[in-house]
Amino acid sequence: MTNFLKKYWFVSLVVLFLCSIIVFFIYDTNKGKLPGKTVDGNSVVYSINKIDKTADEFYNDLYDKSGVATIYAKIEKAVANQGIETTEEMKTTAKTNAANIIANFQQQYGQNYETQLLAAIKQVGYSQVSDLETYLIQIQKINKIFEQYVEANPDTTIKPYMEEAKPMLVSHILVKMADPANPSEEEAKKVKEVEDELAKGTAFSEVATKYSDDTGSAAKGGSLGVVTKDAQFVPEFLEAMLQLNEGEVSSWVTTQFGKHLIKIDASTLDTLKTDETFYSGLYSYDPTIQGTAIWKKAEELGIDFKGNDELKAKIIEYLNITGKVN
């Protein structure tokens, strides 16, 4: 038991803080309605050895120990739940994703999977495995808030991203070679097979799935997702990629890994937005978009710090959006 507690001490600490916050928020909502002891007009939360702990002291202790990140997490959850309606599609998606997550945990941890899954769920503020679908619905709502903000503010979000980062959806086919300058007979044969398949009109994605030696992207039809002009690719690959337009396929590009064919699947906004990695790329380019989106939605819902300007300022600082919001 001792070893188990040592292994999961951090999870236990997170849960303790989350439980404390829940207790505080319930108490704070009802403190004016509940009879009890007060000290200088301030309600007492608890007493130990005849020493009283007031609501203000309790809040300050909680803030000092758990930090603004934990308090922000509660605000974010409230904004998501109150700002976005739960749809049947969200429920279905959450159920499917939850089943996949559980299956992955079962595969990785075997009979111990529920313990590991529960530990992970507790780290994001929930208390039982059955809360997984609720959490996944919340994530969808948060993403919806991000997307709504981006769509409503394209000049400050999408436009700079498109103009400065030059995002594009890229696929490739890799034929690995021990010495790219001197392909072996087998390696040269594979190059020819790829060329023949494409010449027959076989879709690039199908050829990539069948022949590419980059197994990670091959499983996705050769797709590398949405990348930018500053992508961390080897120079030869990046240079060739940036010379292509939407729909074009490069000639063979030689790198230290072998020979590649590169295809630009999308580079215009309308086509890029159809790919699920477009928004994640946008948020990586400008991480403040997400914080600004949540803050603006909170303001829309009428968030009120009741004069606690210090907490408000701390949250804005935590989100790194100082100067972007009031």
In short:
With 326 residues, the protein is α+β, with helices and mostly antiparallel strands.
Structural description of this entry:
The chain has 326 residues and is of the alpha+beta class. It has 15 helices and 7 strands. The strands form 2 sheets. It has a 4-stranded antiparallel beta sheet, sandwiched between helices. It has a 3-stranded antiparallel beta sheet with strand order 1-2-3. A hairpin with a 2-residue loop joins strand 6 (253-255) and strand 7 (258-266). Helix 4 (88-109) crosses helix 5, helix 4 packs across helix 6 and helix 6 crosses helix 14 (288-300). The relative contact order is 0.10. Mean pLDDT is 83; it is low at 1-37.
Give the helices and strands, then pairings.
Layout: H1 2-7, H2 9-30, E1 38-39, E2 42-48, E3 51-54, H3 55-83, H4 88-109, H5 113-123, H6 132-152, H7 158-165, E4 168-176, H8 185-199, H9 204-211, H10 215-218, E5 223-227, H11 235-242, E6 253-255, E7 258-266, H12 269-272, H13 278-285, H14 288-300, H15 309-318
Helix pairs in contact: 2-3, 2-5, 3-6, 3-15, 4-5, 4-6, 6-14, 8-9
